[in-house]
Amino acid sequence: MKNTQRFLFTPELIAQCEEEDILDHVLNTLADEKLLCKLQFQRKGKRDDYPIRTMWAILWAGIVYKHRGYGELARELKRNPTLRMRCGILLHEGVPSKWTFSRFLGKLIKERELLDEMFDELVGQLKTHLPDFGKEAAIDSTSLPTYARGRKDPLESADPEADWGRQRKIFKRKDGTAQEEIKKWFGYKLHLLVDANYELPIGYKVTKASAHDSQQCMPLVEEAKGKKEMPIEYLIGDKAYDSEEIHRRLIIEHGIKGIIPLREFKDKEEGKTVYELNRQHVCFDLEKHKEYEMVFWGYEKKSQSLKYRCPHSLDRVKCGDWRSCNGRSEYGKTMRIPLKLNYRYYTAIPRETKKWKRLYRKRTSVERINSRVKGLLVLDFTTWRGKAKAELRAGLSLIAMLAVAVSMIKQKKAERMRMIRAA
Questions:
Q1: Using the 8-state DSSP alphabet, how is residue 150 labeled?
Q2: Are residues 170 and 282 in the same domain?
Q3: In a domain, 3, yes or no
Q4: Ramachandran category for residue 307: left, alpha or beta (phi over 0 → left; psi -120 to 50 → alpha)
Q5: What is the value of pTM for the model shown?
């Protein structure tokens, strides 16, 4: 009979060990002592059948191991002695009931300030370990459906704090034609400000589903620049954030260069966009009856203006009428366009430049974080109702991402800082 050797470390076992390590990374990294001591003090003189630290470990196990609700997690705790031991439970009879866990969540909701401090502490550690963390930031929102059934009148729903949200997207088919997709949901909306390179959150806010994305842009940026002192130089967003106020406040109040595509409106008679009809950086060849775009030559921070140069003097075009506007100068004609002329049309990095296009491609980083939070951390499949629980669940999921990243960096395994996606 032929003997076959069994592998001690199978791929499945290795994957399981890596998954179990995530819980340790989270629990060992969080600055949670202040919160746990406060919760323990509140229990003084009361029943302590389920220690605070045990409940805390169970909470994080449910998040990193992707359990959709506590009922599912409780069944796993009763079945899995290893997980029970890691959470501080000796026997399966010691698994807390659903109502015990619900009361614990109710206490955590009242401690949002301490949870926000934990989030900010982790962001601060990342800024210390990664000097360029936050330099290139991206912003976007995603849906957070509530467990309650949607009604025409939200007050008739089991979750009266929620309302209806609508998201419109336009895709290009293979044949080049446009396809429109409209998504509707009942619940809330998660607004995220993230680092576009490391794909980690910097700030977040939960609102009703009907809240417009642009309304939360500046509050998130101001919190990141002020309270967290993030070195944001570029803010990348989609067309939802294209407004005169956002562009103006970003560059004037914070010195941030907005990388936001222009919402173009066509003039029916001319057949051109409003921007094309009002653009300033063009010159004319009267001899050939042609129009040329002048060459962008940099942003002048002191005067907050864009500098453009003659395309003929830079050998970009052959203009037959270039002497009439350049005279004897070999440097060529220059033009300066102040941003205040129109903060939407003229941005610190013009949209036609390669740098703008390179930065805008990083906008997908925030979409990947949305997918990771909702899919891998099961934020899209929970059984909660109410804005307070939505804020708590979103905050805990984002804290888990940050904790794993900080833990990996401290262990000199920065390449695995997004290991949470393997959970």
A1: P
A2: no
A3: no
A4: beta
A5: 0.85
